[in-house]
Amino acid sequence: MSGSSSQGRLGALADRWLPKLVLSPTLAASLIFVYGFIAWTGWLSFTESRLMPRYEWAGVVQYQALFENERWWTAAANLGIFGGLFILFCLLVGLLMAVLLDQKIRAEGALRTVYLYPMALSFVVTGTAWKWMLNPDMGLQKVVVDLGFTDFTFDWLVNPDMAIYTVVIAGVWQSSGFVMALFLAGLRGIDDSIIKAAQVDGASLPTIYRRILIPSLRPVFFSVLLILSHIAIKSFDLVMALTGGGPGNSSDVPAIFMYQFAFTRGQLGVGAASAMMMLFTIVAVLVPLMYMETRSAKRV
Amino acid sequence: MKLKRLSAAVLAASLFPVAAQAADVEVLHWWTSGGEAKSVAELKKMMSAQGVTWKDFAVAGGGGDNAMTALKTRVVSGNPPTAAQIKGPAIQEWGAEGVLADIDAVARAGNWDKQLPPVVSRVMKYKGKYVAAPVNVHRVNWLWANPEAFKKAGATVPKTWPEFFVAADKLKKAGIQPIAHGGQPWQDATLFESVALGVGGADYYNKAFVKLDKATLAGPTTVKVFETLGKVKTYIDKGAAGRDWNLATAMVINGKAGMQFMGDWAKGEFTAAGKVPGKDFICTDAPGTQNAFTFNIDSLAMFQQKNPAAVQAQAKLAATVMSPAFQEVFNLNKGSIPARLDTPMAKFDDCAKKSSFDMSAASKGGKLVPSFAHKMAMPSATEGAMVDVISQFMNSNMTAQQATERLARAGAVR
């Protein structure tokens, strides 16, 4: 009798402590390697660090240098253009594809795979492939010109004013399938009886989508926004592979700026300051989103 | 049993890491491509002939960026390599971190001050003491031309900027791309610096890009430089964006383009394609830069060693790098010229001979200037800011006046 009760107590103890014990290494790792290094970067951004870290307090000189740097503002503006258009088009294209696939069509599984497949590629592959396709001398432009349309030009990739939009094209191509999958899952999760009831009331299919289905996808919108906005802000590999930040530095983004200043130009302080600015941007986007999300969840 | 021995060995290795590297030299470099790797192998041979074991620490890629990251990690962890491939003012930056070794004794014994042009030896010293040894000199202000293309267009290889534009127009009319260029920031800067030296002369170049004199940078000469560069820009094809320099050289080799502004490493591409200097391709000074010489010097900076045996090995390394035998064989393989003025040049080709002759002449005439596009002239922060302005000028319709103002502002970045 007493044996089984002690076993029960032991079991209860394990129930209480085992999850914490198992989680503690990951907790410690993320405390050190994520938050610890954020704090370290933050500290470096207030020092005179050049080639190597130095730890004397220097105030906000690095932020001043950053804000006087025209290239930083180019990068920030590009992030605005890229981030805004990338998120907008991913949402639109993804939602449209999800709605169309939702019509109980034939070979849906195959189609879904086709649209999802770009997600399996890394951004470097996407960037390199699109670089070849958009190159005026051997890609799309050459194909159309060879077809006989001799005055066709599509030179966005080498045009400093348009290069950032090619990044949007490649980014949307890669990510919209993933957005579609999320929306499709959301649509499938909606109770069929609601749709049936609306149909009985005589609502047309577009009205059902517009007034009932899409509004009920609200939580999915939040998740998609969360994922897309952080992909946009930290985007580095796609731009590096597609345009290399060029021509010149016309398609520069903050992540590339940060890498170059911190690691190739020996201005660790400015690099750290720009990394902190990126962090603030992410926080500025995500905190309101998460706040709204939790509030709406509570209301329901 | 085996396991025990293995673990004992691991333990011993971890306990006595210093003893193991007693007579070793470990050299961090990124000379990994064909001719360069051959050059490094020579150094390895010479070191082992003196009983010093060579530990190769090659980190390829990124134009040395990857190697620099590796170096920082090693220095921060208190275990720096014997020497690392560092050049230009970066030597001063590492010196300021207090990690470089004083090799003045070796330099005095070898009489380095006599062997090197003063502009060069200044780069190798930190606070008056030698901390680095030069391995080679690249000349940057070259113009590479395809004589066949020039003949077809009825043009002559230009010596001045007015002649240059005449020739470029003729090439264009003959359906040949006048200038092969790659739209990468460092290539834009390479082109800019040749234009600046040609238009403004060595005095202007020194004041503006070495002393970073604000009035000179903001002055009318800089406007003229940008105006010329803007005109040069119109002879570059649209496909240049992001093109690698060797692809641009290939355009000159196969006659698609007439000329290219590039340092003497371009010669390797020509010779690898079986072309003969003077016959199949022409190497000449960039327009208006006769007798002037922009140099790009690779050097090995020496890091402080704790172990006395390692210090001795380091001294041997430094002396070997500066020996005429090494300077000759290394540069024959790499396509550059020796940093030592007294190295025999008999085995070198015509372009290298001209380069070496011009270097001595330019050194005497005070026209030997460091290349800032190749990180030889100014702190890396300033250089980066200037290259940003230049590449923006190349890729937008910024006016020469605006570019000058921005360049002057970039010159104040430290």
Task: Explain what the structure shows.
Chain B: This is Probable sugar-binding periplasmic protein. Chain B: Belongs to the bacterial solute-binding protein 1 family. Chain B: Part of a binding-protein-dependent transport system for a sugar. Chain B: It is found in: Periplasm. Chain B: It comes from Vogesella margarita. The complex is a heterodimer of chains A (300) and B (414). Chain A is mainly alpha-helical and 300 residues long. Chain A has a single domain, classed as MetI-like fold (Orthogonal Bundle). Helix content of chain A is 73%, strand content 0%. Chain A contains 13 helices and no strands. Chain A is flat, with a radius of gyration of 25 Å. Chain A starts with a helix and ends with a helix. The model of chain A has no long low-confidence stretch (mean pLDDT 88). Chain B is α/β, with parallel strands linked by helices and 414 residues long. Chain B has two domains: 173 residues, D-Maltodextrin-Binding Protein, domain 2 (3-Layer(aba) Sandwich); 204 residues, Periplasmic binding protein-like II (D-Maltodextrin-Binding Protein, domain 2), CATH 3.40.190.10. Chain B contains 20 helices and twelve strands. Chain B is globular. Chain B starts with a helix and ends with a helix. Chains A and B meet through helix 12 of A and helix 4, helix 5 and helix 19 of B.
Please name the defining characteristics of this protein:
heterodimer, A: 300 residues, mainly alpha, MetI-like fold, 13 helices, B: 414 residues, alpha/beta, D-Maltodextrin-Binding Protein, domain 2, 2 domains, six-stranded mixed beta sheet, four-stranded mixed beta sheet, 20 helices, 12 strands, 14% strand, globular
